[in-house]
């Protein structure tokens, strides 16, 4: 419903780049990469599994849409804009994979920063402690 609502707020005409679907799919790829990267740091059980299935598969899977994306590619190609259709198809796929990778990287970066900082009461390795 979110994606469909955005498409109504941010419409495109035939032959134009479907920016609403593109934006939603790219934001969804980044967010899903981040979510799965964070959840992968521990076993997929309990609330983590529920969050992965509910937010990842459910919400983000419904937010992003491969079927609408393909229909829009077909409309561009059917309107004789083969270059636009091919660019939208390839660009969306490459950018989506890249943003999912950025999401995974950001999730790992946050995890590394948190584990790199000593907590109160832990030795820091300074001052001759072993």
Automatic annotation (TrEMBL):
<comment type="function">
    <text>Fluoride-specific ion channel. Important for reducing fluoride concentration in the cell, thus reducing its toxicity.</text>
</comment>
<keyword id="KW-1133">Transmembrane helix</keyword>
<dbReference type="GO" id="GO:0062054">
    <property type="term" value="F:fluoride channel activity"/>
</dbReference>
<keyword id="KW-0472">Membrane</keyword>
<keyword id="KW-0406">Ion transport</keyword>
<feature type="transmembrane region" description="Helical">
    <location>
        <begin position="83"/>
        <end position="107"/>
    </location>
</feature>
<protein>
    <recommendedName>
        <fullName>Fluoride-specific ion channel FluC</fullName>
    </recommendedName>
</protein>
<keyword id="KW-0407">Ion channel</keyword>
<feature type="binding site">
    <location>
        <position position="64"/>
    </location>
    <ligand>
        <name>Na(+)</name>
    </ligand>
</feature>
<keyword id="KW-1003">Cell membrane</keyword>
<keyword id="KW-0812">Transmembrane</keyword>
<feature type="transmembrane region" description="Helical">
    <location>
        <begin position="53"/>
        <end position="71"/>
    </location>
</feature>
<comment type="similarity">
    <text>Belongs to the fluoride channel Fluc/FEX (TC 1.A.43) family.</text>
</comment>
<keyword id="KW-0479">Metal-binding</keyword>
<dbReference type="Pfam" id="PF02537">
    <property type="entry name" value="CRCB"/>
</dbReference>
<keyword id="KW-0813">Transport</keyword>
<dbReference type="GO" id="GO:0005886">
    <property type="term" value="C:plasma membrane"/>
</dbReference>
<feature type="transmembrane region" description="Helical">
    <location>
        <begin position="20"/>
        <end position="41"/>
    </location>
</feature>
<keyword id="KW-0915">Sodium</keyword>
<dbReference type="GO" id="GO:0046872">
    <property type="term" value="F:metal ion binding"/>
</dbReference>
<feature type="binding site">
    <location>
        <position position="61"/>
    </location>
    <ligand>
        <name>Na(+)</name>
    </ligand>
</feature>
<dbReference type="GO" id="GO:0140114">
    <property type="term" value="P:cellular detoxification of fluoride"/>
</dbReference>
<dbReference type="InterPro" id="IPR003691">
    <property type="entry name" value="FluC"/>
</dbReference>
């Amino acid at each position: 419903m979110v994606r469909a609502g955005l498409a109504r707020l941010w419409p495109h005409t035939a032959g134009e780049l479907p920016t609403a679907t593109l934006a939603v799919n790219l934001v969804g790829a980044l967010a899903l990469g981040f979510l799965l990267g964070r959840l992968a740091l521990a076993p997929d059980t309990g609330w983590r599994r529920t969050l992965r299935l509910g937010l990842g598969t459910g919400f983000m899977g419904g937010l992003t849409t491969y079927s609408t994306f393909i229909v829009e590619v077909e409309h561009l190609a059917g309107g004789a804009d083969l270059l636009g259709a091919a660019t939208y198809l390839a660009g969306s796929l490459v950018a989506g994979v890249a943003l999912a990778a950025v999401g995974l990287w950001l999730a790992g970066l946050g995890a590394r920063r948190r584990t790199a900082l000593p907590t109160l009461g832990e030795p820091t390795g300074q001052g001759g402690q072993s």
